[in-house]
Amino acid sequence: MTLRIGIVGCGVAGMAAAIACAREGFRVTVLERFETPRPLGAGLLLQPNGLAALETLGLRAGVEAMGARVAALDGRTVEGRPVLDLVYKRWAPDAYGLGIHRAALFDALFGALRASGAELRCGVEAASFEPGAAVTIVDTAKRRHGPYDVVVIADGSHSELRAQALPKARAPLFPYGALWIVRPDRHNRFDGALRQVYDGARRMTGVLPIGRAPGHTQPEVALFWSIRRDRYDAWRAAGIEAWRSEVSAMWPAAGRLLVGVTEPEEVTFAVYRDVCAAPWRAGPVLLIGDAAHGTSPQLGQGANLALADGVALAACLKARSADPAAALRLFRAVRKARTGWTQLMSRALTPVFQSDSTPIGWARDLLLRELSRLPPVERLMLATLVGAAALPGLPARLPRDAASIPLAERVPAG
Q1: How far is it, in rounded angstroms, from Cα 105 to Cα 280?
Q2: Would you say 339 and 345 are in contact if contact means Cβ atoms under 8 Å apart?
Q3: pTM for this structure?
């Protein structure tokens, strides 16, 4: 019998899972709450693990043509003191990141989804599910969808269904969020690196080259600004000019990017959750992507983990197609090591870069660069950056009988 798979959410994780599963011959239905699916946010950094997953999906070349290669991460204090200096080639000669406009990544995934044979139902906001050997999803209009042999919840860190699947799951908001805006970079002044400037742990701004948006010819960058959630209303009230002045005082080149911005509505305000939802599944219902293991953006791994989740899920379902429950257990075993490490490091690093602690900011500025020059520390930092690090003692790769998609977990060997 062909597995029937229902996927809630048409974001990165949901589309990756739908494409990979449909290509394996499963009957896939994607339920999306928006009438017209669309990308949310400004830009993101694809790491080697995410690029490997895109290669498995046959989308890497097209995405790379739209993005901007990132060779290094460079973080400095407002006085110019180096704090963070991570170069991908120190991990492997062919390693790099890719800054990408979210719309460009969305278009690539959405086009592949439409061509995959998966069914897409828009304007469907899933409200609950009826558990059993086969699961039926009920939407807010009381319509029923299914039944499905496997239900995949991929509706992001703010998931509405997570609590029903796993009542003990926790997803508190981080105190800090970020402002994001996309701006043109006509002369490629910010090409080649993700650059950040810090003023203690309370203030941080950064610029990421993201290539071209769909339909655009000019290169663009995503500027982000760290901000406490409870200060967002005050930021709006102060106005854009006050913000531009503050950014310019920290980093003049970044401040110039905001020339011409006049309204707060041009800026995206993003908030983040620390999602603790082990073991990700309840019977045939599985959480993936940010719905399962959302973190702060400090490691830039959210979309990358989501892509790898989708590809790995299809491989596990193919390997255990006669027993969906065993396939979901296999998925958990395969993905726990890498996602667990990312969550652990995210929790450790978030207060180092986004907190109200003056001593933490001082210690970071004084010690981080010196520590990162120690070869074992640098290797660990680079492994975390590229998506190769994993919790010790746990499997980090697909077992032999699920190795039909080996790129799902592969990054350049260091």
Answers
A1: 26
A2: no
A3: 0.94
